[in-house]
């Protein structure tokens, strides 16, 4: 495990509740981060992502104008978004399976249930940085690989393209 | 069915290798177990310092809830005012534990559960929402923080049992129709 240089990280924190933004900002500042931009709705968050160019977005689900799921879908648009590979941590009081799957299918990188703790937030940030996942591009999805582990019982056809062409795509986008 | 399963069997799936630019830029090689623990400890201390403001935050949320109640009584829980009460309760569900009031988070969760799961929110009496708001007000005013106050726990349990009965009744009614 290597040390995270938080002072080099830029965050956008999107939550319509000012108290929650204050709590998250306090935690991130204590970790060492100094560049934190706050947004109180989905539209301001998208603007902040495009102009502030954060390294990580931490967003709530329930927000005015458009919610955290819609915000994620807009960011994960490989043709229209300025920052389609941005790591996104969804921090929400919704913990139902339905919401978690909705967030996953929108392209969220990590999911964190409120109440937030220093330990849980640190671990999510750490995981985003230390264990970046491949991205999957199909007609119905663009985002981090939703398979967290290989299924040892899977015996179907391997449809994922991992040949040289696919890697060429990866090299192009990583510029 | 997940989006991935909806793809046609013939569709090409492109796997883009993980980007390592962030990792390369902000990870300093070497063991960091101590640094990680120190960062978490510093963050916990920072929240502890912030906690002096938590009671004011809680009181301002309660005042906001109380100010919405007359409109909710007039327009019902399926109105804009009802949605505002739901939003404040949802926020309390997420932050009250951090503010030192886990029982308030439980009570907020109970009301959110009712409003989100009932088949027809217009059938829920605004009195139920008021009962939750007044309970939170009582707990913050009269009970000790955290989970060790028997009165707060009894109030929370009573509300949860009541909401479970209402939901059961509403689901049965919806099925019969």
Q: Features of this protein?
A:
heterodimer, A: five-stranded parallel β-sheet, two-stranded antiparallel sheet, 6 helices, globular, B: about 180 residues, mainly alpha, Four Helix Bundle (Hemerythrin (Met), subunit A), 8 helices
The number of helical runs of chain A is 6
Give the topology string of chain B: H per helix, E per strand.
Answer: HEHEHHHHHH
**What is the share of helical residues of chain A?**
25-40%
Morphology call of chain B = extended
Please name the fourth-level CATH homologous superfamily of chain A.
Answer: Response regulator
Total count of helical runs of at least 4 residues of chain B: 8
Tell me the span between the first and last alpha carbons of chain A.
26 Å
CATH topology of chain A: Rossmann fold
**Which oligomeric form is depicted?**
heterodimer
- In spatial order, strands of the major sheet of chain A run 3-2-4-5-6
Work out the count of structural domains of chain A.
1
Span between termini of chain B: 28 Å
Description:
- The complex is a heterodimer of chains A (175) and B (177).
- Chain A is an alpha/beta fold.
- Helices cover 38% and strands 20% of the residues of chain A.
- Chain A has 6 helices and 9 strands; from the N terminus they run E-E-H-E-H-E-H-E-H-E-H-E-E-E-H.
- In chain A, a hairpin with a 2-residue loop joins strand 7 and strand 8.
- The longest helix of chain A is centred in the first third of the chain and has 14 residues.
- Chain A starts with a strand and ends with a helix.
- With 177 residues, chain B is mostly helical.
- Chain B has a domain of 123 residues: Four Helix Bundle (Hemerythrin (Met), subunit A).
- Helices cover 71% and strands 3% of the residues of chain B.
- The longest helix of chain B is centred in the last third of the chain and has 27 residues.
- Chain B starts with a helix and ends with a helix.
- In chain B, 31% of the residues are buried.
């Amino acid at each position: 495990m290597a040390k995270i240089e938080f002072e080099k990280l830029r965050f956008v924190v999107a939550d319509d509740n000012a108290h929650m933004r204050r709590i998250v900002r306090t935690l991130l500042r204590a970790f060492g981060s100094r560049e934190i931009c706050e947004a109180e709705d989905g539209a301001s968050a998208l603007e902040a992502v495009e102009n502030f160019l954060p390294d990580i977005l931490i967003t709530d689900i329930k927000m005015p104008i458009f919610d955290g799921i819609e915000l994620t879908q807009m960011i994960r648009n490989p043709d229209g978004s300025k920052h389609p590979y941005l790591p996104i941590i969804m921090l929400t009081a919704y913990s139902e399976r339905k919401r978690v799957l909705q967030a996953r299918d929108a392209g969220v990188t990590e999911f964190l249930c409120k109440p937030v703790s220093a330990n849980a937030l640190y671990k999510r940030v750490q995981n985003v940085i230390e264990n970046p996942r491949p991205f999957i591009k199909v007609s119905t999805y663009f985002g981090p690989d939703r398979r967290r582990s290989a299924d040892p019982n899977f015996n179907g056809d391997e449809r994922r393209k991992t040949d040289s062409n696919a890697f060429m795509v990866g090299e192009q986008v990583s510029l | 069915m997940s989006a991935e399963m909806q793809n046609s069997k013939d569709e090409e799936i492109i796997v883009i290798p993980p980007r390592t630019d962030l990792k390369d830029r902000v990870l300093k090689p070497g063991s960091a177990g101590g640094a990680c623990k120190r960062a978490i400890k510093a963050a916990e201390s920072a929240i502890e310092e912030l906690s002096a403001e938590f009671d004011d935050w809680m009181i301002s949320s309660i005042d906001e809830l109380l100010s919405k109640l007359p409109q909710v009584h007039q327009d019902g829980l399926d109105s804009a005012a009802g949605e505002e009460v739901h939003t404040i309760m949802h926020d309390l569900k997420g932050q009250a534990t951090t503010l030192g009031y886990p029982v308030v988070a439980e009570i907020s969760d109970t009301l959110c559960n009712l409003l989100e799961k009932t088949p027809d929110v217009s059938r829920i009496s605004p009195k139920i929402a008021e009962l939750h708001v007044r309970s939170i007000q009582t707990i913050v005013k009269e009970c000790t923080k955290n989970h060790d106050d028997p009165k707060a726990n009894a109030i929370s349990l009573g509300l949860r049992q009541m909401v479970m009965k209402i939901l059961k009744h509403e689901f049965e009614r919806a099925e019969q129709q």
